[in-house]
## 1
Amino acid sequence: MLHTVATGTALLVSLAATAAVPSSASAPTPRRVAVEIVSANGSGCPAGSTRVSTSPAGKSFKITYEEFTASAGPGAAALDFRKNCQLALDVSLPKGWTWAISRIVSTGSADLRDGATGMQAASYYWSGHSGTSGRIGNRFTGPLSGRWQRSNRIAKKELRYLPCGERRYLNVNFELRVRAGSATGRNWLAMDTTSGSDFHVVWKRC
């Protein structure tokens, strides 16, 4: 069942002109786009626990979470080793332009003991267009304790632009997994309110 979050509150995301180089120097790229979380579904994002915000630099939008932790070992439930969060984002673009995700920077925290492993992955696509999907993934190996950051740049040939002239949801699915392996004690991998994922974009004229 989908849980609606932040409904009706569109956030204006300022995007720097340097995000993409237009074909003509006299035609700068747009600087603002409206992004709204329409719905959230999954064990990693209970109702009201996910937020979207603008970055201080004005080059990306950021998703943060309050209850997104995968864990394994003593005290963890059988299904806690995997957590996911499926988001539907309503993106309003200026006429004559489209954009694609060019880089995803994810940060979080972890406590993985020797012998344990973790995984963080994200897939995304424009609703109704199977050819606009993309995926990134990161693996973790214990021992690892404290904060972590992973930056995944999307290759130019892998950029997934919204088809020009269409209004579609951007669907993003994040996943965290933890395997205790030979490790003792509880092991966990998290994304939270002090971390999350920054989505950087590039513009293209239609």
## 2
Amino acid sequence: MDELIFFNPGDSIGKFHDYNEAVSKAQIYREHHDIEDGHVLVVKGVSDDSQSFDIFLADNKVSHLESPENPDTDKPYKISKRF
């Protein structure tokens, strides 16, 4: 089952159209910033027109308990890979 998670798109570390490039950049980011395993995420937007992959830090996720769903401030993503 896909895990759905919400982020503010402005918190993205990077946006890529190629999955392999996103994974590579996420690995490099994690190594250069000495971040623990599982804290760098490659995610894909859930909208039908989403053809890109974003990189986020897990700590930047938005909880709907803290912030009600608002398309201007948060957006749903599916986790593709954790680093």
## 3
Amino acid sequence: MPPASKAKGDYIMTEFTRLMKGGEEGHAVVAGQPDVSHLLKEITPDASGKAEMPQKADPLHATQIALIKRWITEGAKDDTPASARQQYDMEHPPVYATAPLITSLDYAPDGKLIAVAGYHEVLLHRADGSGIEARLVGLSERIQKVAFSPDGSRLAVAGGSPGRMGEIQVWDVAKRKLEVSASITFDTLYGASWSPDGKLIAFGGADNSLRAIEAATGKEVLFTGSANDWVLDTVWSKDGSHVMGAGRDMSAKLTEVATKRFVDNITSITPGALKGGMHAVTRHPQRDEILIGGADGVPQIYRVFRETKRVIGDNANLIRRFPAVEGRIFTVDYSPDGKVIACGSSYEGRGGVTLYSAEFDPAMPKEIQAIVQKVVSSQSADEKKQLEAWVTKDVKQLKSVPMERGVFALTFSLMAKRWRWAGRMAGCAWWTWLPVRW
């Protein structure tokens, strides 16, 4: 049972000792005596089907209540894993025996700070390389995504403790203060992204869900279960009206936020169109186009909103497809002006960073529109050749930097005119930067 990161009342239920201590009503759990354990009374629904706990939520299922009663009857023993008993907070940060794998990086909009995922914490490095500005220590042991808000004042953190809990944290960057700790689902959360107005945060889960919460309160405002596997990354449309999730089911899905309605599969769901799950998605800085990357190692750019009618087996939203990189793509990004894309990959001890030119006209010619509106099986060999020529037009690789152990996170900075990547080599974590002119 993990320690509480943000107390919301007198009674704390997320740490064994404080669970047993109880609150204003006295001892909540009396080992071996379920009938006098106040906790059991609080979670058991009355004749009307309502229960005191959990507050502002549906009562626990009868099977869950029975399990808790059995645990109390059998002695209410502390079975918290040893790895979870170590408590970390801002006064007691982790002490590393070896550097952790860096899973996420993000530049602050002003280019002065770079957030780096660690163990139970996010480290705020000064972007000039002069050292660590702050350590933001929280509940989640595994940090999967860090993302600065559009104005840079806050930092969203998605993570959790695998198989036990997922959490979204929202930090006030200037005050180094945890404003929101939202505990959601029973597994790690992924792919946190901010709405353009900075009011909402979207993220994915291992329960095949895509959710969004209010950044100020942690209140859930969107839930969709349209994915068929883990949702590993999210991104918003330019105006914030829609959110997209990409994941292991080999698709990027579009959801309308106001209605919570699943709208479309942006990518093709035809077998073979994508040869593996998706790990990363990001949007063009000025246009409603998304760059995706995943297990097949092929970076691709799709338009968000369909311009042609759907036909069986189509891949009509595809705008550009780039040559495959070595390994699986774990991270993608656009330069701030949208003219360069980068992807980081890793596979069996090899990988690296590849940069491509993304300067092209995204408008679909009429002759291409006519082709994609045909059922794939009815397209002629010449039409397929024309389509292939269009989705690879003006595609140009700028640089490829091989890296031992591969790359798992990267981010561009406009202010510094450079990009950073992170990876792991010989059992230790590292991150570095390379100037890029555009």
## 4
Amino acid sequence: MKQLNDLFSQIQSMQKSMGNFHNSSNPAFDLSSIDTYIKDTIQQALGPQLGGEDQTIPIENGSSKSHLSYEMVELHHYYIVKIKIPDFIEVENIRLSLGNCRLYVHGLPGGESQTIALPEQPHTKQAHAQYKGGLLEVRLARYTKEDTKDIYIQY
């Protein structure tokens, strides 16, 4: 929290020292909009989901291109990927698979499949997906350094 206060103090300091640019007609020098953007970004990062990465993946919708957007959140024990499914995609046709630090989304229009890069390979046997209200949520268990496996000794 102290870091956020320091960041806001630095922004206010920059606004005071560069005050002559504040009234400029160039929106790039409008420090109030920059300040708002930074606050919104920080709020989004510290929101109820503890941060996230919003991405879009191009997919085909007939002859026009559309976007399959998703958000990936890294928690202590899980990766949660929330994929927004547009109305023109039949959810029943979607299949998910894991491999090589990637989540693969199959069954998109035109037989396409898309790839979502993951920061590291999750547990392949501890993955769950749920679709509700236009949102496909995929929960992937992360490997942790405490992961252990018992080794049985034959006598």
